[in-house]
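Re-run requested by the PI after the first attempt was lost when the workstation crashed. Everything re-entered from the original request form. Ligand of interest: phenylalanine.
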Amino acid sequence: MLQDKITQYTTEINDFSTENVEELEQFRIKFLGTKGIIKDIFDEFKAVSPEEKKTLGKVLNEFKQLAENKYQTLKEQDKSELIGKDAGLDLTLPGSGFEVGARHPLALVRREIVDIFSKLGFVVAEGPEIEDDWHNFSALNFPEEHPARDMQDTFFIKKGGEHGDIALRTHTSSVQVRMMEAGKPPFRALMPGRVYRNEAISARAHCFFHQVEGLYVDENVSFADLKQTLFYFVQELYGEGTKVRFRPSYFPFTEPSAEMDISCTICKGEGCQFCKFSGWVEILGCGMVDPNVLENCGIDSKKYSGFAFGMGIERIANLKFVIKDLRLFSENDARFLKQYKTSLI
Ligand code: PHE
């Protein structure tokens, strides 16, 4: 009787096959579970005669082994497939791919500015962030008592030195000086870089920011050249129809000096919070290089003239991307940075 059962179940086990986790589990419960067939058979086995036990014992153990082996093999076979089906996943679907990194909004803007000016023949030049008084101030015609030299604006590092006190540069105009000292006109260069000012950090000010300086020195360079160059730049960067206006201003190193506004790109000149309802936003300082500066750098100011301009590119990026808090640029919050993945690439 018991032998018949075993023979019958042996066939069933041998014939059994599945790729389905549910079915496999049912198989386990049916044969190997605590209330399963094997348990029943072993219970029945206790009641058989001692002679029968001898032959049946071996058969029974083999039968149990068979069920266990079957279960193990099916469990192991193509485990990934079983797991996949179990979790309701379709493993034949293509993978999700790698996340592409994003460019920093300031890097995007800097690159776009460099691209625009390179079409006009401007090359990129760089200089040190740790500067001496001569390159950051004196050569640029800053009078001795000028407030910008004050501790309030400048991070001083060391007193004295061959070219005066050592400080973190407060503007990229220092690179103008280095360039003019090192070479001969004509110069047509763009000088991007980080600058430092001792200011309290807020949404509108930071102790460091980024500038792009421009310098053009040659024979017969005029204010008209400056205006046309900057006008072209604005049309390229913000689109045709963006208005510009120049307001007289003062910088020690340019004469005459001006500040340039553009029609607010956020409200299109209608008036909004960003432009303080004026319709205009200031984006840069500029002017004709002061003859004193040319002479300080060993350039004949009777023969050569030039223009220079400088802009903070956080401001340019604010207008481009409508970013209201300066601090976002340096906090490295991936949620912020990720947004610029596709823009301007
Ligand atoms: N260096 C000036 C600043 O930091 C900007 C500027 C550059 C103005 C060149 C005129 C010419 O504000």
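Saved to the shared folder this time. Residues 171, 173, 213, 251, 254, 285-287, 308-310 surround phenylalanine (CB under 6 Å).
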